[in-house]
Amino acid sequence: MIGTRILGATALAAALALGAPYVMAQQASPPAASSAPAKPKPTRETRVEARIKTLHAQLKITPDQEDAWNAVAGVMRDSASTIDQLSQQRAKDRTKGMSAVENLKTYQAIADAHADEMNKLVPAFQALYDKMSPAQQKNADAVFNSRGTRRAPAKKKS
User: Fold this and answer.
1) pTM higher than 0.85 for the full model?
2) Does 110 map to a domain?
3) 76 C-beta neighbours (distance < 10 Å), count
């Protein structure tokens, strides 16, 4: 679960705090059985596209900023694709059985890819941020600083 938060808090998200859990999705425990039919899980691509659309609206991207925004969105899409490919390969390899070391190496490959993608995302977002008005920058700061504020409930004091 911690790995999901570390890598997921990215894909911005991705990344720009993509918020998409990239790595450990296949390790999550299955939901409890219910009488309602299970909804199909949205694909990573669907989640990234939704995140791109949401961020575009939240950041109030202007027509003059569209080129810079499209660069950011492109990095987000590429990142999601890269992580998705690695995650699918990892899941496939796990069904064949892996040693603990092999398992860690596949996780490392995903973490490394995530770091590489973040190294592409930051300059793209910086270029967009530099084109924003001070009010938009303040808004972007608020949007990104509000991400990941959901925390586990505080422990009760004894």
Assistant:
1) no
2) yes
3) 29
Look up tokens 């303040």; give the residue. Answer: 138
Structure tokens at 140: 């972007």
Model confidence pLDDT, tens digit, residues 81-123: 999 899 888 888 887 888 999 989 989 999 999 999 999 999 9
Domain interval for residue 108: 2-21+44-145
Q: Domain tally for the chain?
A: 1
Site of tokens 């699918």: 88
Position 77 in a domain: yes
DSSP-assigned beta bridge partners for residue 14: 11
d(CA 97, CA 40): 26
| Residue 113, domain member (yes or no) | yes
Alpha helices, DSSP H only, in the chain?
Answer: 2-8, 44-59, 66-96, 100-131, 134-146
The verdict on residue 26 lying in a domain is no
